[in-house]
Design brief:
Order of helices and strands: EEEHEEEEHHHEHEHEHEEEEEH
Largest sheet: 5 strands, antiparallel
Bound molecules: flavin mononucleotide
Shape: globular
Helix content: 10-25%
Strand order of the largest sheet: 1-2-3-7-4
Structural class: alpha+beta
Length: 331
Protein backbone atom coordinates (compact mmCIF):
# COMPACT_ATOMS: atom_id res chain seq x y z
CA UNK A 1 0.00 0.00 0.00
CA UNK A 2 1.75 3.17 1.14
CA UNK A 3 4.85 1.81 2.83
CA UNK A 4 8.25 0.75 1.56
CA UNK A 5 10.83 -1.61 3.06
CA UNK A 6 10.95 -4.73 5.21
CA UNK A 7 12.88 -3.79 8.36
CA UNK A 8 13.73 -0.11 7.80
CA UNK A 9 10.23 0.72 6.63
CA UNK A 10 8.82 4.11 5.68
CA UNK A 11 5.32 5.42 5.03
CA UNK A 12 4.55 8.87 3.72
CA UNK A 13 1.46 10.93 4.48
CA UNK A 14 -0.15 14.26 3.72
CA UNK A 15 -1.76 16.44 1.08
CA UNK A 16 -0.54 19.46 -0.82
CA UNK A 17 -3.12 21.83 0.68
CA UNK A 18 -4.01 19.95 3.89
CA UNK A 19 -2.37 20.13 7.32
CA UNK A 20 1.03 19.13 6.02
CA UNK A 21 3.21 16.31 4.76
CA UNK A 22 5.65 13.88 6.32
CA UNK A 23 6.94 10.39 6.84
CA UNK A 24 6.78 7.65 9.44
CA UNK A 25 9.87 5.47 9.87
CA UNK A 26 9.70 2.10 11.55
CA UNK A 27 12.73 -0.11 12.17
CA UNK A 28 15.29 2.63 12.60
CA UNK A 29 17.96 1.35 15.01
CA UNK A 30 18.17 2.91 18.47
CA UNK A 31 21.07 5.19 19.23
CA UNK A 32 21.37 7.18 15.99
CA UNK A 33 22.16 10.84 16.65
CA UNK A 34 19.54 12.94 14.87
CA UNK A 35 18.29 16.52 14.76
CA UNK A 36 15.74 18.48 12.75
CA UNK A 37 18.58 20.66 11.40
CA UNK A 38 20.03 17.63 9.63
CA UNK A 39 16.72 17.05 7.85
CA UNK A 40 16.61 20.73 6.93
CA UNK A 41 19.79 20.51 4.85
CA UNK A 42 18.23 18.01 2.45
CA UNK A 43 14.83 19.72 2.47
CA UNK A 44 16.49 22.96 1.39
CA UNK A 45 17.84 21.19 -1.69
CA UNK A 46 14.28 20.16 -2.63
CA UNK A 47 12.71 23.57 -2.09
CA UNK A 48 11.52 25.76 -4.92
CA UNK A 49 13.06 29.13 -5.71
CA UNK A 50 15.25 28.62 -8.78
CA UNK A 51 13.93 29.75 -12.19
CA UNK A 52 11.66 27.03 -13.58
CA UNK A 53 10.38 25.96 -10.15
CA UNK A 54 7.00 26.74 -8.62
CA UNK A 55 6.42 30.22 -7.13
CA UNK A 56 4.88 28.51 -4.08
CA UNK A 57 7.19 29.33 -1.16
CA UNK A 58 7.11 26.83 1.68
CA UNK A 59 9.59 27.23 4.53
CA UNK A 60 9.60 23.41 5.02
CA UNK A 61 10.58 23.44 8.69
CA UNK A 62 10.78 19.79 9.81
CA UNK A 63 9.65 18.48 13.17
CA UNK A 64 10.54 15.13 14.71
CA UNK A 65 7.42 14.25 16.69
CA UNK A 66 8.37 10.85 18.09
CA UNK A 67 11.13 8.28 18.37
CA UNK A 68 13.80 10.75 19.52
CA UNK A 69 15.08 11.24 23.08
CA UNK A 70 18.20 13.06 24.25
CA UNK A 71 19.17 13.68 20.63
CA UNK A 72 19.20 9.99 19.66
CA UNK A 73 16.69 7.65 18.11
CA UNK A 74 14.98 5.38 20.63
CA UNK A 75 14.09 2.48 18.33
CA UNK A 76 10.40 3.48 18.40
CA UNK A 77 8.65 4.76 15.24
CA UNK A 78 9.88 8.18 14.10
CA UNK A 79 7.17 10.58 12.94
CA UNK A 80 8.47 13.40 10.75
CA UNK A 81 6.22 16.35 9.88
CA UNK A 82 6.12 19.64 8.00
CA UNK A 83 3.07 21.91 8.03
CA UNK A 84 1.83 23.54 4.84
CA UNK A 85 2.05 27.34 5.02
CA UNK A 86 1.68 28.80 1.52
CA UNK A 87 -1.64 27.33 0.37
CA UNK A 88 -3.88 28.78 -2.35
CA UNK A 89 -6.65 26.39 -3.45
CA UNK A 90 -8.89 28.60 -5.57
CA UNK A 91 -7.61 27.41 -8.97
CA UNK A 92 -8.40 23.81 -8.12
CA UNK A 93 -12.05 24.31 -7.11
CA UNK A 94 -12.82 25.81 -10.52
CA UNK A 95 -11.07 23.01 -12.48
CA UNK A 96 -12.39 20.12 -10.41
CA UNK A 97 -14.29 18.45 -13.30
CA UNK A 98 -11.81 19.02 -16.12
CA UNK A 99 -8.88 16.65 -15.51
CA UNK A 100 -5.44 17.85 -16.54
CA UNK A 101 -3.90 15.74 -19.32
CA UNK A 102 -0.90 13.80 -17.99
CA UNK A 103 -1.78 14.39 -14.35
CA UNK A 104 -3.55 12.13 -11.84
CA UNK A 105 -6.86 14.06 -11.71
CA UNK A 106 -8.81 11.54 -13.80
CA UNK A 107 -7.48 8.39 -12.10
CA UNK A 108 -7.99 9.92 -8.64
CA UNK A 109 -11.62 10.70 -9.45
CA UNK A 110 -12.15 7.11 -10.66
CA UNK A 111 -10.27 5.37 -7.86
CA UNK A 112 -11.61 7.34 -4.90
CA UNK A 113 -15.10 8.11 -6.13
CA UNK A 114 -14.71 11.84 -5.65
CA UNK A 115 -13.58 11.64 -2.00
CA UNK A 116 -9.98 12.55 -2.69
CA UNK A 117 -8.53 15.93 -1.75
CA UNK A 118 -8.00 17.46 -5.20
CA UNK A 119 -6.59 20.76 -3.94
CA UNK A 120 -3.07 21.25 -5.26
CA UNK A 121 -3.14 17.62 -6.51
CA UNK A 122 -3.72 16.39 -2.94
CA UNK A 123 -1.80 13.21 -2.13
CA UNK A 124 -0.46 13.05 -5.70
CA UNK A 125 1.45 16.28 -5.30
CA UNK A 126 5.21 16.48 -5.66
CA UNK A 127 5.02 18.09 -2.22
CA UNK A 128 4.75 14.59 -0.75
CA UNK A 129 8.39 14.08 -1.72
CA UNK A 130 9.33 16.29 1.25
CA UNK A 131 8.43 13.26 3.40
CA UNK A 132 10.68 11.06 1.27
CA UNK A 133 13.51 13.54 1.62
CA UNK A 134 13.20 13.61 5.43
CA UNK A 135 13.16 9.81 5.65
CA UNK A 136 16.10 9.75 3.25
CA UNK A 137 18.07 12.12 5.48
CA UNK A 138 17.71 9.64 8.35
CA UNK A 139 18.63 6.70 6.10
CA UNK A 140 21.65 8.57 4.77
CA UNK A 141 23.09 8.85 8.29
CA UNK A 142 22.41 5.21 8.97
CA UNK A 143 24.18 3.82 5.91
CA UNK A 144 27.50 5.64 6.34
CA UNK A 145 30.15 5.12 5.00
CA UNK A 146 27.90 4.44 2.01
CA UNK A 147 27.35 7.76 0.26
CA UNK A 148 24.58 8.48 -2.22
CA UNK A 149 24.70 11.41 -4.62
CA UNK A 150 22.59 12.41 -7.62
CA UNK A 151 22.75 15.16 -10.19
CA UNK A 152 21.03 16.27 -13.34
CA UNK A 153 22.62 14.97 -16.55
CA UNK A 154 20.35 16.93 -18.86
CA UNK A 155 16.98 18.65 -19.17
CA UNK A 156 14.89 18.60 -22.31
CA UNK A 157 17.75 16.76 -24.05
CA UNK A 158 20.38 19.45 -23.29
CA UNK A 159 23.24 19.52 -20.77
CA UNK A 160 22.90 23.34 -20.52
CA UNK A 161 20.38 23.21 -17.68
CA UNK A 162 19.66 26.89 -17.06
CA UNK A 163 19.33 27.80 -20.73
CA UNK A 164 17.04 24.88 -21.49
CA UNK A 165 14.80 25.62 -18.51
CA UNK A 166 14.61 29.32 -19.39
CA UNK A 167 13.71 28.45 -22.97
CA UNK A 168 10.82 26.25 -21.75
CA UNK A 169 9.60 28.98 -19.39
CA UNK A 170 9.75 31.58 -22.18
CA UNK A 171 7.68 29.30 -24.41
CA UNK A 172 5.07 28.75 -21.68
CA UNK A 173 5.93 25.04 -21.69
CA UNK A 174 7.60 22.44 -19.49
CA UNK A 175 10.54 20.04 -19.90
CA UNK A 176 11.74 16.79 -18.40
CA UNK A 177 15.22 15.57 -17.59
CA UNK A 178 17.52 12.75 -16.58
CA UNK A 179 18.87 12.30 -13.05
CA UNK A 180 22.01 10.22 -12.52
CA UNK A 181 22.50 8.62 -9.11
CA UNK A 182 25.60 6.98 -7.61
CA UNK A 183 26.18 5.09 -4.36
CA UNK A 184 29.75 4.41 -3.27
CA UNK A 185 31.36 2.24 -0.55
CA UNK A 186 28.63 -0.37 -0.84
CA UNK A 187 29.45 -3.83 0.46
CA UNK A 188 29.16 -6.71 -2.01
CA UNK A 189 26.30 -9.09 -1.29
CA UNK A 190 23.22 -6.90 -0.74
CA UNK A 191 20.01 -7.95 -2.49
CA UNK A 192 18.53 -11.22 -3.72
CA UNK A 193 18.61 -13.00 -7.09
CA UNK A 194 14.95 -12.51 -8.05
CA UNK A 195 12.12 -10.36 -6.66
CA UNK A 196 14.23 -8.50 -4.13
CA UNK A 197 17.05 -7.83 -6.56
CA UNK A 198 18.74 -4.50 -5.93
CA UNK A 199 17.50 -3.27 -9.33
CA UNK A 200 13.93 -4.30 -8.46
CA UNK A 201 13.96 -2.61 -5.06
CA UNK A 202 15.59 0.61 -6.23
CA UNK A 203 13.26 0.83 -9.23
CA UNK A 204 10.25 0.19 -7.00
CA UNK A 205 11.26 3.14 -4.83
CA UNK A 206 12.29 5.46 -7.67
CA UNK A 207 9.11 4.81 -9.67
CA UNK A 208 7.16 5.81 -6.56
CA UNK A 209 8.37 9.37 -7.05
CA UNK A 210 5.76 11.31 -9.04
CA UNK A 211 6.81 12.08 -12.63
CA UNK A 212 9.49 9.36 -12.93
CA UNK A 213 8.90 7.36 -16.11
CA UNK A 214 12.08 5.37 -16.64
CA UNK A 215 15.02 3.83 -14.77
CA UNK A 216 18.17 2.20 -16.17
CA UNK A 217 21.14 0.65 -14.36
CA UNK A 218 24.69 1.06 -15.59
CA UNK A 219 24.70 1.26 -19.37
CA UNK A 220 20.99 0.39 -19.33
CA UNK A 221 19.27 0.62 -22.71
CA UNK A 222 22.62 1.07 -24.47
CA UNK A 223 23.47 -2.55 -23.53
CA UNK A 224 20.98 -3.70 -26.17
CA UNK A 225 23.38 -2.39 -28.83
CA UNK A 226 26.64 -3.69 -27.32
CA UNK A 227 28.46 -6.95 -27.92
CA UNK A 228 29.23 -9.18 -24.93
CA UNK A 229 32.90 -8.40 -25.41
CA UNK A 230 32.12 -4.70 -24.85
CA UNK A 231 29.49 -5.08 -22.16
CA UNK A 232 31.26 -7.51 -19.81
CA UNK A 233 32.86 -5.75 -16.88
CA UNK A 234 36.31 -7.33 -16.52
CA UNK A 235 37.13 -8.20 -12.91
CA UNK A 236 40.51 -6.74 -11.98
CA UNK A 237 40.63 -7.25 -8.20
CA UNK A 238 39.90 -10.04 -5.73
CA UNK A 239 37.47 -7.64 -4.01
CA UNK A 240 35.38 -7.70 -7.21
CA UNK A 241 36.58 -4.36 -8.60
CA UNK A 242 35.83 -4.17 -12.33
CA UNK A 243 37.55 -2.17 -15.04
CA UNK A 244 34.24 -0.85 -16.41
CA UNK A 245 30.79 -0.63 -14.83
CA UNK A 246 28.23 -1.35 -17.53
CA UNK A 247 26.29 -3.43 -14.96
CA UNK A 248 25.87 -0.43 -12.67
CA UNK A 249 27.28 -2.29 -9.65
CA UNK A 250 24.77 -5.15 -9.64
CA UNK A 251 25.12 -8.74 -10.93
CA UNK A 252 22.46 -11.36 -10.39
CA UNK A 253 20.43 -8.83 -8.40
CA UNK A 254 23.23 -8.51 -5.83
CA UNK A 255 25.64 -5.62 -5.24
CA UNK A 256 29.12 -6.51 -6.53
CA UNK A 257 31.01 -3.93 -4.46
CA UNK A 258 31.48 -1.48 -7.32
CA UNK A 259 29.66 1.82 -7.54
CA UNK A 260 25.88 1.50 -7.85
CA UNK A 261 24.90 3.66 -10.82
CA UNK A 262 21.49 4.29 -12.29
CA UNK A 263 19.65 6.99 -14.21
CA UNK A 264 16.02 8.03 -13.92
CA UNK A 265 13.82 9.85 -16.43
CA UNK A 266 11.69 12.73 -15.19
CA UNK A 267 8.83 13.62 -17.51
CA UNK A 268 7.93 17.20 -18.41
CA UNK A 269 5.49 18.73 -15.91
CA UNK A 270 1.93 18.06 -17.04
CA UNK A 271 0.55 21.38 -15.75
CA UNK A 272 1.52 23.86 -18.48
CA UNK A 273 0.24 27.40 -19.02
CA UNK A 274 -1.25 26.60 -22.45
CA UNK A 275 -4.70 25.66 -23.61
CA UNK A 276 -5.15 21.88 -23.75
CA UNK A 277 -7.98 19.58 -24.74
CA UNK A 278 -9.77 17.61 -22.03
CA UNK A 279 -13.25 16.35 -21.14
CA UNK A 280 -15.77 17.79 -18.67
CA UNK A 281 -16.53 14.79 -16.43
CA UNK A 282 -20.03 16.15 -15.62
CA UNK A 283 -21.21 16.33 -19.23
CA UNK A 284 -18.82 13.99 -21.05
CA UNK A 285 -18.26 16.78 -23.59
CA UNK A 286 -14.80 17.64 -24.86
CA UNK A 287 -13.64 21.02 -23.67
CA UNK A 288 -10.60 23.27 -23.45
CA UNK A 289 -8.61 23.61 -20.24
CA UNK A 290 -6.15 26.28 -19.24
CA UNK A 291 -4.24 25.19 -16.13
CA UNK A 292 -3.86 27.95 -13.57
CA UNK A 293 -2.08 27.70 -10.25
CA UNK A 294 1.59 27.53 -9.34
CA UNK A 295 3.71 24.86 -10.99
CA UNK A 296 7.25 23.73 -11.70
CA UNK A 297 8.19 24.13 -15.37
CA UNK A 298 10.97 21.58 -14.82
CA UNK A 299 10.38 19.12 -12.00
CA UNK A 300 13.76 17.52 -12.70
CA UNK A 301 15.49 20.52 -11.09
CA UNK A 302 14.16 19.48 -7.68
CA UNK A 303 14.57 15.77 -8.20
CA UNK A 304 18.20 14.80 -7.40
CA UNK A 305 17.79 14.97 -3.62
CA UNK A 306 14.52 13.01 -3.84
CA UNK A 307 16.21 10.23 -5.85
CA UNK A 308 19.07 10.20 -3.34
CA UNK A 309 16.56 9.92 -0.50
CA UNK A 310 14.67 6.87 -1.79
CA UNK A 311 17.97 5.20 -2.74
CA UNK A 312 19.30 5.71 0.79
CA UNK A 313 16.04 4.31 2.21
CA UNK A 314 16.31 1.14 0.10
CA UNK A 315 19.99 0.69 0.95
CA UNK A 316 19.27 1.20 4.68
CA UNK A 317 16.68 -1.55 4.50
CA UNK A 318 19.00 -3.89 2.60
CA UNK A 319 21.80 -3.23 5.07
CA UNK A 320 19.45 -3.88 8.00
CA UNK A 321 18.33 -7.16 6.36
CA UNK A 322 21.95 -8.21 5.76
CA UNK A 323 22.87 -7.35 9.37
CA UNK A 324 25.39 -4.74 8.22
CA UNK A 325 23.45 -2.20 10.32
CA UNK A 326 22.65 -3.58 13.81
CA UNK A 327 19.36 -2.87 15.67
CA UNK A 328 21.21 -0.83 18.32
CA UNK A 329 24.04 1.54 17.45
CA UNK A 330 26.86 1.93 19.95
CA UNK A 331 29.38 4.77 20.24
C1 LIG B 1 9.22 17.78 -6.66
C2 LIG B 1 8.06 17.59 -7.58
C3 LIG B 1 7.32 18.69 -7.99
C4 LIG B 1 6.24 18.54 -8.87
N1 LIG B 1 5.57 19.67 -9.28
C5 LIG B 1 4.56 19.54 -10.17
C6 LIG B 1 3.86 20.69 -10.62
O1 LIG B 1 4.14 21.83 -10.22
N2 LIG B 1 2.85 20.52 -11.52
C7 LIG B 1 2.52 19.28 -12.00
O2 LIG B 1 1.61 19.16 -12.83
N3 LIG B 1 3.16 18.17 -11.58
C8 LIG B 1 4.16 18.26 -10.67
N4 LIG B 1 4.80 17.14 -10.24
C9 LIG B 1 4.47 15.84 -10.85
C10 LIG B 1 3.12 15.28 -10.44
O3 LIG B 1 3.05 15.11 -9.04
C11 LIG B 1 2.91 13.96 -11.17
O4 LIG B 1 3.16 14.13 -12.54
C12 LIG B 1 1.48 13.46 -11.01
O5 LIG B 1 1.29 13.08 -9.66
C13 LIG B 1 1.16 12.26 -11.90
O6 LIG B 1 2.05 11.20 -11.64
P1 LIG B 1 2.94 10.57 -12.81
O7 LIG B 1 3.55 11.70 -13.54
O8 LIG B 1 3.98 9.75 -12.07
O9 LIG B 1 2.03 9.75 -13.65
C14 LIG B 1 5.87 17.26 -9.34
C15 LIG B 1 6.61 16.15 -8.91
C16 LIG B 1 7.69 16.30 -8.06
C17 LIG B 1 8.47 15.09 -7.63
Amino acid sequence: MNSLGRIFRISIWGESHGYGVGALIDGCPAGLELSAEELQRDLDRRRSGAPGTTPRREPDRPRILSGLFNGRTTGAPILLAITNQDVDSKDYEAKRWTPRPGHADFVAEKKYGGHHDYRGSGHFSGRLTAGLVMAGAVARKLIRPVMVSARLDEVGGFPQIEEAVQDAVDRGDSIGGIVRCHAINLPAGLGEPFFDSVESLISHAVFSIPAIKGVEFGSGFRLARMKGSEANDIIVGADGTTATNHAGGVNGGITNGNELVFRAVVKPTSSIPQEQQTVDLRTGERTVLRVEGRHDACIALRMPVVVEAVTAVVLADLMRIAGVIPPVLTG
